[in-house]
Design goal:
By secondary structure, this protein is of the alpha/beta class. The chain has 3 helices and 7 strands.
Length: about 140
Amino acid sequence: MSTIKQFQVTFDCEEPARLAAFWCEVLGYVVPTVPEGFATWEEYHRSLPPEKQVVYFACADPSGVGPRVLFQRVPEGKAVKNRLHLDVRAGTGLVGEERLATLEAECARLVAFGAVHVRTLFADDENESCIVMQDPEGNEFCLA
C-alpha cells in the first residue's frame, strides 16, 4: 500500500509567471530566485527565444510544509466552473463580525493584486461567512 506524503497543485493557465506571482501573494509563498543579471522573471523570459519560453512556473511554501503550486501554460482558455477550488483559510478560529471583517480585509488586499470578488456568503445557522473569489484568470477560490 502506497503512502503519499506530498502533493503538488497544478493550474492550467495562460500566463504562468503572472499567476504564480498572484498566488504567492495569496498563500505567502515564494517564487524561485530570478537568474543573475535579470531584475524580474518577466525580463528573463523575454530574453529567451520563443521556442525556449517558459511554459510553466512554480512557487513554494517557504517553510516547506505546504504543497508546491505549479502553473502550466495551456492553449485553451478556461471554459467552465472549476471542479476543484482552493479554500484559503484566512479566518481560521474567528467567528461572527470579527471573521467577516478579517475576510473582507483579505478580499480587498487580493483585489489589489488582480482577484475578483464574486460574492460574500454570510453566516447562517450551519456555516460561518466566506467570500467566493476568482484569481486573475478566473479560477474560483474561497476565503474561509
